[in-house]
Amino acid sequence: MQLTANRATCIGAGQCVFTDPDAFDQDDDGLVLVLRPEPAATEEIARATEAVHVCPSRSLRLVESAP
Amino acid sequence: MTTATFSMQRIDPYSPPAEHLRLQQEAPVSQVPWRNDTTIWAVTRHADVRTVLGDARFSSDRSLPGHPTFAGYTSASKLKNLIEMDPPEHTQQRVRVMGEFTVKKIAAMRPRIEQIVEETIDAMLASGTEADLVEALSLPVPSVVIAELLGVPFEDHSLFQENSAAFVEADATPEQRMAAMGALKEYIGGLVADRIERPGDDILSRQLAAGAPPEELTALGFLLLIAGHETTANMISLCVATLIDKPELLQQLRENPALLPGAVEELLRYFTIAEVGGLRLATADLEVGGVLIPAGDAVFALCNTANRDAEVFPEPNTIDFTRGARNHVAFGFGPHQCLGQNLARLELEIVLEAVIRRIPTLRFAGTFDDISFKEWGPNYGVYRLPVAW
Ligand code: HEM
Ligand code: SF4
Question: Looking at the keywords, is Repressor present (chain A) (predicted)?
Answer without folding.
Answer: no
